[in-house]
From TrEMBL:
Entry-linked Pfam families: Glyoxalase_6
Natural source organism: Kribbella pratensis
InterPro entries: Glyas_Bleomycin-R_OHBP_Dase (IPR029068), Glyoxalase_6 (IPR041581), VOC_core (IPR037523)
Top-level lineage group: Bacteria
Domain VOC: 4-115
Protein name: VOC domain-containing protein
Length: 116
């Protein structure tokens, strides 16, 4: 018996809108059956699917789990993500890594690290 990482789930107010943002981040498309209640990104690809589920309650406080991304053209990617609707929150240079903390359109925090 083994366990695999199937989905990374995001609770959100509008599944289609948030899936569209994250599809843009990953330079892909929202899977065909997405709507405001449920949407996925990369369901047919290898690796975990990003799954977006509409929930009635708003996000409360800082998310305890977040996505870490890495980019070789780090500055350009951060600018691109801000252009998609991300909000730049903070910049760090610790533990041998330089990264920017951003928030997606619904306030979920994620990081983009400089990848050499």
């Amino acid at each position: 018996m083994s366990v695999t990482l199937e989905n990374i789930a995001f609770d959100c107010a509008d599944a289609q809108a948030l899936a569209t943002f994250w599809a843009g981040v990953l330079s892909t498309e929202v899977d065909a059956d997405g709507n405001q209640f449920f949407a996925t990104v990369n369901r047919a690809a290898a690796g975990p699917t990003l799954m977006f589920l509409q929930v009635p309650e708003p996000r409360n406080g800082k998310n305890r789990l977040h996505v870490d991304l890495a980019a070789t053209d780090w500055s350009a990617e951060v600018d691109r993500l801000v252009g998609l609707g991300a909000k730049r929150l903070d910049e760090h240079n610790e533990y041998g890594t330089h990264w920017i903390t951003l928030a997606d359109p619904e306030g979920n925090v994620f990081d983009v690290a400089e990848h050499h």
